[in-house]
Design goal:
Layout: H1 7-13, H2 15-23, H3 26-31, E1 34-38, E2 42-48, H4 62-77, E3 82-93, E4 102-112, E5 116-125, E6 128-143
Antiparallel strand pairs: 1-2, 2-4, 3-6, 4-5, 5-6
Amino acid sequence: MPKRIDEQALHQQYYAEIRDKVTNDPYAESLGIRLTKFEETLAEAELLVQDHMVNAYGTAHGAVIFALADHVLSVVSNAHGKASVGLSTNAQFIQAARPGDLLTARAIETKRNFRVGFYRADVLRGDEIIATVDGVSYRKDQYFVETEED
């Protein structure tokens, strides 16, 4: 039987290496998404809505809001150094955002086990929630940091 890895300790011991890996996201960078907080079960990022990010109605495109939420979901689901990929998401768009709005996405881990993780991301404009996204990830067998067990 494989030895269980203490993922909390792994997050702490390999924090810098894990953070470097999860922030290396060319798509998020291309949108101007900036990671502002990275913890074991929480991630936050910001995005300033630009003029080119709007839909035909002049409001932030849902895909841009979703990309911000998806980024923090990805970061928090990989925070233990174990490769995780999205299985499903469910988004609710509550209010519109406009160019010039600074959006913050905050994702938390609600539950995880060896194979799956459950997460919730809120996208905020100031204190107002403008969207929520629930996500489930599949946790692969391999860790992307070289542990002492390797």
